[in-house]
Automatic annotation (TrEMBL):
PANTHER family linked: CYSTEINE-RICH RECEPTOR-LIKE PROTEIN KINASE 9-RELATED, CYSTEINE-RICH REPEAT SECRETORY PROTEIN
This protein's name: Gnk2-homologous domain-containing protein
Keyword entries, A-Z: Repeat, Signal
Pro residues bias (residue ranges): 279-289
Signal peptide: 1-32
Domain of life the protein comes from: Eukaryota
Region Disordered: start-end pairs: 276-300
Pfam families: Stress-antifung (PF01657)
InterPro entries documented for this protein: GNK2, GNK2_sf
Length: 300
C-alpha cells in the first residue's frame, strides 16, 4: 500500500514559471492526479506492447463513454505483449466529460510512467489502469493509494472512528446494489462535523464482491485515515473519498443521521505504509450545503 501527497508532479521550477501562467489561461482548474507505476517490467519505445497500448488508447475512451456505467475494460494483443486495461468515470460524471478525461489519462500515463508496462492514474473524475498482468478479474481493493488530509478532526478519536465507520458501513450496501455501484452521502449527527462521502465499485463487480471490496476500504480507512478531516482510498476495483465539504455533483443520495454505537475491532492490514501529507487545500470556496432528499439511514 502507498500513501501519496496530493501535490502535482515534480517539475523544474523555471518550467513551472513559464508553463503555469499558460496553463492557467487554458484550463480553469488544475486537475489533481495521483499515479502509480511498476518499478520493473519496462517496454521499448518501438515494441509490440506500445503498438497494442496505442490501439487501446484510441478505443477505450469511446468504449467507456458509450457504456451506461461509464466503465470499460479491454484486452489487446497476445502474450508476451498483451495489455489489460480498465477505466471508470465517476458516477456523477457524464459521457462527453468521460471520453475526454480518459483520452487525457492515456496521454498523462505515458508521460507519468514512461516505458512502464503497469501503470495507473487517478483523477477526481476518472481512473485508468493498464498492465501486462490480468488484474481484471480481481475483486479486492488492489494496491490502493491513500491520499490523506493533514488536518485532524478536533473531536476525540473514538468519535472520529465512529464517524468513519458509520459513513462507509451505511453506504456500502446501497452503493453495491445500485446499477453504477455508486452512491454519495451526507452525515449530520448532533455536534459532530458534517461529512460528505462518495463510494464506487467497478460496475462489473457483483454486489457481494463490491461489498467486500468496501470492507477492505473500511479496514484501511480506520487504520490509516482515522482522525483526518478528509481522505481518499483509491483502488483498482473500488474507491472512497470523504471530506467536510461537498465535492460531488448533485445532492447526496443518502442522509445519515445517527452514529453507529460502536466500531467493531478490525484486523489491521500487515502491509507497512508511509504517510504522505496532502498539501492541497480544500476547493477554493466550499459549495453551498447539499440538499438531502432521497433516503435516510440511521447508521446502525
Ligand atoms: C527497437 O529499438 C532497439 C533499440 O532501442 C533496437 O535495438 C531494435 O532493433 C528495435 N527493434 C525494432 C523492431 O525496430
Ligand atoms: C498488437 O500490436 C501488434 C503490432 O502492431 C499487431 O500486429 C497486433 O495486431 C496487435 N494486436 C491486436 C489484438 O490488435
Ligand atoms: C458534462 O460534465 C462536464 C463537466 O462536469 C460539464 O461541463 C458539461 O456541461 C456536462 N455535459 C452535459 C451534457 O451534461
Ligand atoms: C494530526 O495528528 C497526528 C497524529 O495524532 C499528528 O502527528 C499531527 O501532527 C497532527 N496534525 C496536525 C496538523 O495537527
Ligand atoms: C490498528 O491500527 C490503528 C491505527 O494505527 C491502531 O490505533 C489500532 O490499535 C490497531 N489495531 C490493532 C488490533 O492492532
Ligand atoms: C477487515 O476486518 C474484518 C474484521 O476484523 C476482517 O474480518 C477482514 O478480514 C478484514 N479485511 C481485510 C482485507 O483485512
Ligand atoms: C485477525 O487476524 C488473526 C491473525 O491473522 C486471525 O487469526 C483472525 O481470524 C483474524 N480475525 C478476523 C475477524 O478476521
Amino acid at each position: 500500500m502507498k500513501f501519496l501527497p496530493s501535490v502535482h508532479l515534480p517539475c523544474h521550477p523555471w518550467m513551472a514559471m513559464v508553463i503555469l501562467p499558460l496553463l492557467l489561461l487554458l484550463v480553469p482548474l488544475a486537475a489533481a492526479q495521483w499515479s502509480s507505476c511498476s518499478k520493473s517490467d519496462d517496454y521499448k519505445s518501438n515494441s509490440t506492447y506500445v503498438a497494442n497500448l496505442s490501439l487501446l488508447s484510441s478505443t477505450l475512451p469511446k468504449k467507456a463513454a458509450s457504456s451506461t456505467t461509464l466503465f470499460a475494460t479491454s484486452i489487446m494483443g497476445n502474450f508476451p505483449d498483451i495489455v489489460y486495461a480498465l477505466t471508470l468515470c465517476r458516477g456523477d460524471s457524464n459521457a462527453s466529460a468521460c471520453e475526454s478525461r480518459v483520452t487525457t489519462a492515456f496521454q498523462d500515463l505515458l508521460r507519468l510512467c514512461p516505458y512502464k508496462k503497469n501503470a495507473a492514474v487517478y483523477y477526481d473524475p476518472c481512473m485508468l489502469k493498464f498492465s501486462n498482468k490480468n488484474f481484471l478479474a480481481t475483486t479486492t481493493v488492489n494496491d490502493p493509494l491513500f491520499i490523506v488530509n493533514t488536518k485532524n478532526f478536533t473531536t476525540n478519536a473514538d468519535i472520529t472512528q465512529r464517524l468513519l465507520f458509520t459513513l462507509i458501513n451505511s453506504m456500502a450496501q446501497l452503493a453495491a446494489n445500485s446499477l453504477r455501484r455508486f452512491t454519495t452521502s451526507r452525515l449530520d449527527v448532533g455536534s459532530s462535523p458534517t461529512l460528505y462521502c462518495l463510494m464506487q465499485c467497478m460496475p462489473d463487480l457483483i454486489p457481494h464482491d463490491c461489498e467486500s471490496c468496501f470492507q477492505d476500504i473500511l479496514n484501511s480507512t480506520l487504520e490509516y485515515l482515522g482522525g483526518k478531516q478528509g481522505g481518499r482510498v483509491l483502488g483498482t476495483r473500488c474507491y472512497m473519498r470523504y471530506e467536510m465539504y461537498p465535492f460531488f455533483q448533485g445532492d447526496p443520495k443518502l442522509r445519515i443521521i445517527n452514529l453507529a454505537p460502536h466500531v467493531p475491532t478490525i484486523n489491521n492490514t500487515t502491509t507497512p505504509a508511509t504517510v504522505y501529507p496532502q498539501s492541497q487545500p480544500p476547493d477554493a470556496a466550499p459549495p453551498p450545503e447539499g440538499k438531502v432528499t432521497v433516503q435516510e439511514h440511521n447508521g446502525m
